[in-house]
Write a structure and sequence with these properties.
Structural class: alpha/beta
Subcellular location: Cell membrane
Main location: membrane
CATH class of the domain at 60-132: Alpha Beta
Strand content: 15-25%
Protein name: Biopolymer transport protein ExbD
Helix content: 25-40%
Keywords: Cell membrane, Membrane, Protein transport, Transmembrane, Transmembrane helix, Transport
Distance between the termini: 108 Å
Number of strands: 5
Pfam family, one: ExbD
CATH topology of the domain at 60-132: Nucleotidyltransferase, domain 5
Largest sheet: 5 strands, mixed
Radius of gyration: 33 Å
Order of helices and strands: HEEEHEHE
CATH architecture of the domain at 60-132: 2-Layer Sandwich
Length: 139
Amino acid sequence: MNFRRGRQREEPEINFIPMIDLLLVILIFLMVTTTYSKFAEMKINLPSAQGDTSQQVATPITVAVAASGEMEVAGRKLAAGDKAGLQTQLRDAAAGKKDPVVVVNADAKATHQAVVSVMEAARAAGLLQLTFATQNTTP
């Protein structure tokens, strides 16, 4: 005796609508309650240092970086952002010198990008010794 002859068994299914509603409510809750952190701006004044001056044996090549980004290599001015010209000037200034050291005199308000550009140009010119000049603070 087959009493279930005309009935077929229904497959169980999961209803996703309530789950989507719940996730949407959780998402809205998280978006409303999240606090977005802001980075505080620090007022810093660079560069200054305390210490003795080093006795340099190598030949220095001075590179001055102004706050506006303009640069000066051994007395020759360059426009701001002129990486190729800076590399050429460094290569010319180092020609014939034994163990030249690039001394970066950066203004306290010069951008880090300008200083990094000087470092990249010195590396590309084959000058691996680099130092930064600072001013001594007097108490």
